[in-house]
Amino acid sequence: MLRSLLLALDGIADDAAALASALDLAQATEAGLHVRLTLDRARLEAPEAVPLGGEAFRRHAAETRSARLGARLDALAAEVEVALRARGLEGHPARVEDDVVAELALEAEAQDLVTLSHALRRPAAAEPVDAAFALAPAAFVPG
Q1: Which of 20, 42, 50, 97 stands 20 to 30 A from 12 (CA)?
Q2: Domain range summary for the chain, segments of one domain joined by +
Q3: 133-141 long-range CB contacts below 8 Å, 24 or more apart?
Q4: Does the pLDDT value for residue 1 go beyond 60?
Q5: 60 vs 56: CA distance, rounded Å
Q6: How far apart are CA 94 and CA 134, in angstroms?
Q7: How far apart are CA 77 and CA 84, in angstroms?
Q8: Is the pLDDT of residue 136 over 80?
């Protein structure tokens, strides 16, 4: 039986499905739902090569991305609060901004299930499964 769930949302990926699934599961199992809104500044503001004189532009772009994502997470926090109340669930979303990976890993140790919705992941080309030859079910016709 599940007692506690951790849901981490980054505000970049489409988090509606992850939130709905976590809410359904928490409600069905009467588990506590802990929602963390992650702002991985280290990853968003990572150094990169820029042409001579371009550092100020790079820094401005990184700060702008972080500020916009922060505003998106604020709006998402309000949406999560409404969704929790609508389901009769307790809890408040909390922000994680420092070392996101380490903080989530530490918190995950105390949870029964962890759900991540994140867009800052490996590109599809780096995934270990090659689905290039997969056929859609409707395309298969037995001979």
Answers
A1: 50
A2: 4-119
A3: none
A4: yes
A5: 6
A6: 40
A7: 11
A8: no
Q: Write out the DSSP string of 72-85.
A: HHHHHHHHHHHHHH
Nearest to 103 by CA among 38, 41, 46: 38
Q: What is the pLDDT of residues 70-92, one digit of tens each?
A: 999 999 999 999 999 999 998 88
Q: For the chain, first and last CA: distance in Å?
A: 46
Which among 56, 24, 59 has a CA at the least distance from the CA of 44?
Answer: 59
Side chain identity at residue 141, one-letter code: V
Phi, psi of 13 (to 5 degrees): -70, 160
Tokens of 120: 């800052």
Q: H/E element holding 117?
A: strand 113-117
**SS3 at position 89:** coil
DSSP type of residue 78? H
Indicate the helix (H) or strand (E) that contains 8. strand 4-9
Q: What is the CATH number of domain 4-119?
A: 3.40.50.620
- Give residue-wise pLDDT tens across range 97-116: 888 888 988 999 999 989 88
> Cα torsion for 62, 63, 64, 66, to the nearest 10°?
90
Q: Please list the residues that pair with 5 across neighbouring strands.
A: 33, 113
